[in-house]
Automatic annotation (TrEMBL):
Superkingdom of origin: Eukaryota
Recorded GO CC terms: chloroplast thylakoid membrane
Matches recorded under CDD domains: RHOD
Localization in the cell: Membrane; Plastid, Chloroplast
Biased composition (Polar residues): 16-29
Full protein name: Rhodanese domain-containing protein
PANTHER family per record: RHODANESE-LIKE DOMAIN-CONTAINING PROTEIN 4, CHLOROPLASTIC (PTHR47377), RHODANESE-LIKE DOMAIN-CONTAINING PROTEIN 4A, CHLOROPLASTIC (PTHR47377:SF3)
Keywords noted in UniProt: Chloroplast, Membrane, Plastid, Transit peptide, Transmembrane, Transmembrane helix
Organism: Arabidopsis lyrata subsp. lyrata
């Protein structure tokens, strides 16, 4: 019974239960820097170690970047996936795409062109329209100097006369007032516009349609252009409706009088 206390006293467990003399004598130095708690050091060291492991490992790094790129942030448009979807649709339905493209580029502009009320017309067809349609009139928009050198077509043979109103882009309102003053019923009037070339005739035709005229045509080639009135008159138009220079106006009037005399 007397040996048991001796064994316990000499046991290492006994020593652990007693505080050592050195631990009792150590005191914290107030001047030494404060160290963070041990649990914070452990977490920080663990996070740094994991990040270093991911960076140094190619497999883990590639997987992490793939996961970031595959999960786009909300509100961000994935342009690449949209382009891939469109490309797949084009490859899957090529005939449908080609048909829609043809309709948009060819059919639709053609329909719009033929439905609009101002259109181009050849000099020959303009003469036919003036001859066959009672409500059609010829509007010559050339300036006075040009008219002095090349007169308007003489339409007395058709029971009509050319209306001469010079056009100026700087005074469209004044031009419209003069034109409407020359035509008593614009809503029922078809106008064939004649310019020196193709310059302003299309603009005037569109302007007339927007301001209440029934129809408006601009003569391709005008008076002096290719396939214009002056170019085709010798072969395709009767002499009474020919255009003459100032020197030949008098002779054309004589020819017209002789034709009228023979008809009587």
């Amino acid at each position: 019974m007397t040996s048991l206390p001796i064994i316990l006293a000499s046991s290492p467990l006994r020593n652990l239960t007693k505080p050592s003399s050195t631990s009792q004598t150590l005191k914290p130095n107030p001047n030494s820097p404060k160290q963070p708690p041990i649990h914070l050091l452990t977490k920080t060291h663990l996070s740094v170690t994991i990040s270093q492991l991911i960076i140094t490992s190619p497999v883990l790094a590639s997987e992490s970047f793939d996961s970031i790129s595959s999960d786009p942030s909300p509100g961000r448009i994935d342009l690449e996936s949209i382009l891939v979807t469109i490309d797949n649709f084009f490859n899957k339905y090529p005939f449908f795409v080609a048909g829609c493209t043809f309709i948009y580029l060819v059919v639709y502009p053609s329909v719009i062109f033929y439905l609009r009320k101002y259109k181009p017309i050849s000099a020959m067809n303009a003469f036919r329209k003036l001859k066959m349609e009672a409500d059609s009139q010829l509007l010559d928009i050339r300036d006075d100097k040009t008219l002095a050198t090349l007169a308007s077509p003489n339409l007395k043979f058709l029971g009509k006369s050319s209306v001469q109103v010079p056009f100026s882009e700087n005074d469209e309102d004044g031009f419209l007032m003069k034109v409407k003053g020359r035509f008593s019923d614009p809503e029922n009037t078809v106008v064939c516009v004649l310019d020196n070339f193709d310059g302003n005739s299309s603009k005037v035709a569109e302007l007339l349609i927007k301001n209440g005229f029934k129809e408006a045509y601009y003569i391709r080639g005008g008076a002096r252009g290719k396939n214009g009135w002056l170019a085709i008159q010798e072969e395709l138009l009767p002499p009474p409706v020919h255009m003459y220079t100032a020197k030949n106006v008098k002779s054309s009037n004589n020819n017209e009088a002789s034709i009228v005399g023979t008809e009587n």
